[in-house]
């Protein structure tokens, strides 16, 4: 795994110093440390890191809330949370906040390294899944547009649906365009004609 820039948020300065040393020993670049969740949000906005290493229990804004707020702002990153208590409620909240790995104090180097690797891997899986969903959504939008264009051609010329589709295909091939681009032009031209008829 390549070196990562990791933002630390930990309100106990002794633990924060220990985390900085451990991250450096693992070959990562520690950022911060932020003394609370609000400070972590400000630091992440100024200089977005590759991963968040947040303590759960911090003053002002806790680590889980900070991670959720950052994700809502478009600054979602892999998140490793640290807690002093093994509390099932915190685990539930962590999962709901999109946390990728969960560590209980005291943390050793192996656990920290494993947590970072797991968080990065889960985040990559999530991004790939999200891209797939977006592609599927785009494909659906493209199909709807092509259907509209076919409908316009059928209404305008009285040709069959397969013939309308063939015309769109031919136009795409002849002009070296995508089907959806030809469909968009047909829909746009129809809209222009309708405005001209008003």
Provide the spatial order of strands within the biggest beta sheet.
2-1-3-4-5
Distance from first to last alpha carbon: 62 Å
Query: In CATH terms, what is the architecture of the largest domain?
Result: 3-Layer(aba) Sandwich
DSSP, total strands:
5
Mean pLDDT: 87
Which homologous superfamily in CATH is the superfamily of the largest domain? Response regulator
Element order: H for helix, E for strand: EHEHEHEHEHHH
Q: How would the global form be characterised? A: elongated
Query: How many separate structural domains?
Result: 2
CATH top level class name of the largest domain: Alpha Beta
Entry keywords:
Response regulator receiver and ANTAR domain protein, about 65% helix, 2 domains, Arc Repressor Mutant, subunit A, alpha/beta, elongated, 5 strands, DNA-binding, five-stranded parallel sheet, Rossmann fold, transcription cis-regulatory region binding, about 200 residues, RNA binding
Q: Could you explain how this protein is built, in words?
A:
- This protein is of the alpha/beta class.
- It folds into two domains: 5-107, Rossmann fold (3-Layer(aba) Sandwich); 133-197, Winged helix-like DNA-binding domain superfamily/Winged helix DNA-binding domain (Arc Repressor Mutant, subunit A).
- The chain is built from seven helices and five strands.
- The chain has a five-stranded parallel β-sheet with strand order 2-1-3-4-5, sandwiched between helices.
- One of its GO terms (biological process) is regulation of DNA-templated transcription.
């Amino acid at each position: 795994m390549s070196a990562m820039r990791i933002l630390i948020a930990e309100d106990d300065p002794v633990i924060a110093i220990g985390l900085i040393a451990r991250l450096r020993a693992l070959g990562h670049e520690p950022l911060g440390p932020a003394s609370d969740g609000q400070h972590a949000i400000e630091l992440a906005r100024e200089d977005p890191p590759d991963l968040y290493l947040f303590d759960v229990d911090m003053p002002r804004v806790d680590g889980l809330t900070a991670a959720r707020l950052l994700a809502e702002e478009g600054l979602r990153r892999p998140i490793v949370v640290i807690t002093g208590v093994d509390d099932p409620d915190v685990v539930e909240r962590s999962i709901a906040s999109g946390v990728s790995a969960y560590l209980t104090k005291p943390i050793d180097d192996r656990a920290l390294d494993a947590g970072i690797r797991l968080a990065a891997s889960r985040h990559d899986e999530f991004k790939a899944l999200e891209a797939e969903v977006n592609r599927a959504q785009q494909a659906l939008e493209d199909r709807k547009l092509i259907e509209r264009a076919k409908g316009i051609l059928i209404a305008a010329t009285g040709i069959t649906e397969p013939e309308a589709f063939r015309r769109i295909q031919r136009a795409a091939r002849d002009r070296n365009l995508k089907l959806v681009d030809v469909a968009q032009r047909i829909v746009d031209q129809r809209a222009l004609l309708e405005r001209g008829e008003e």
